[in-house]
Amino acid sequence: MANNLLAGKRGIIFGALNEQSIAWKVAQRCHQEGATFVLSNAPLAMRMGEINKLAEECSAPIIPADATVVEDLEKVFSGAVEQLGGKIDFVLHSIGMSPNIRKGKHYGELNYDWFQKTLDISALSFHKMLHVAEKQDALAEWGSVVGLSYIAAQRAFLDYTDMSQAKAVLESIARSYGQRLGQLKKVRVNTVSQSPTKTTAGTGISGFDAFYEYADRLSPLGNAPAEACADYCVSLFSDLTRYVTMQNLMHDGGFSTTGISEAMVDLLTQATSKEA
């Protein structure tokens, strides 16, 4: 149900690839809530995905950009301000990729050039976006910037490898830039730590299905779906959360604060009884 929470607001959404993408769901919800926005993704990702379909559905212009290249980001922010007719009220950073994970490298044999690429794509791009936005004075007062994160920034998870470090850097950037932009423009910067979600990126991680089921059994509310994450992002873009900033906000059905659940106890009891 739409409530016009974002009526009159302008935004930029980075990272929509296909209908499984969280950024795709966020774009749909922002459109329903009355926002206008620009979509952006890397040219390669655009060729792999279906972003034109989303752009047509949401009447959103597309500005291609490699988020690791400052000059590309300058074109996105200046182009968005021009095409949308004013400063930007909200930005979503939904970008993450690890060449090491794609190539099946375990944590003890990381390629360090690829590791640096992981950090550049998944975390430093967030800093570059905020740097460009500040330099161009492209963000409106009381604007909101959200980056999508994951609990592997705080905990060790098998097969998440160097993306764990990337998410930790992403969250640190949100705090540091949140302080800076809050003082300069009353702009808030947060990260959302989302449940494991069946996106193209998520399912590319080895063992994802098993961990998805584990998290779902452990979380009192179950895994938060992409649609619910989109709702949460809309609330953070809205004026209802004007004083929330520099936070890493858990959106995980209670996973992050649950020690063990009844479902997991039952499962482990069954497993150990069979072993006996």
TrEMBL record:
<feature type="binding site">
    <location>
        <begin position="21"/>
        <end position="22"/>
    </location>
    <ligand>
        <name>NAD(+)</name>
    </ligand>
</feature>
<feature type="active site" description="Proton acceptor">
    <location>
        <position position="150"/>
    </location>
</feature>
<keyword id="KW-0443">Lipid metabolism</keyword>
<feature type="binding site">
    <location>
        <position position="95"/>
    </location>
    <ligand>
        <name>NAD(+)</name>
    </ligand>
</feature>
<dbReference type="InterPro" id="IPR014358">
    <property type="entry name" value="Enoyl-ACP_Rdtase_NADH"/>
</dbReference>
<feature type="binding site">
    <location>
        <position position="167"/>
    </location>
    <ligand>
        <name>NAD(+)</name>
    </ligand>
</feature>
<dbReference type="Pfam" id="PF13561">
    <property type="entry name" value="adh_short_C2"/>
</dbReference>
<keyword id="KW-0520">NAD</keyword>
<dbReference type="InterPro" id="IPR002347">
    <property type="entry name" value="SDR_fam"/>
</dbReference>
<comment type="similarity">
    <text>Belongs to the short-chain dehydrogenases/reductases (SDR) family. FabI subfamily.</text>
</comment>
<feature type="active site" description="Proton acceptor">
    <location>
        <position position="160"/>
    </location>
</feature>
<feature type="binding site">
    <location>
        <position position="15"/>
    </location>
    <ligand>
        <name>NAD(+)</name>
    </ligand>
</feature>
<dbReference type="InterPro" id="IPR036291">
    <property type="entry name" value="NAD(P)-bd_dom_sf"/>
</dbReference>
<protein>
    <recommendedName>
        <fullName>Enoyl-[acyl-carrier-protein] reductase [NADH]</fullName>
        <ecNumber>1.3.1.9</ecNumber>
    </recommendedName>
</protein>
<keyword id="KW-0444">Lipid biosynthesis</keyword>
<keyword id="KW-0276">Fatty acid metabolism</keyword>
<dbReference type="GO" id="GO:0006633">
    <property type="term" value="P:fatty acid biosynthetic process"/>
</dbReference>
<comment type="pathway">
    <text>Lipid metabolism; fatty acid biosynthesis.</text>
</comment>
<keyword id="KW-0275">Fatty acid biosynthesis</keyword>
<keyword id="KW-0560">Oxidoreductase</keyword>
<dbReference type="GO" id="GO:0004318">
    <property type="term" value="F:enoyl-[acyl-carrier-protein] reductase (NADH) activity"/>
</dbReference>
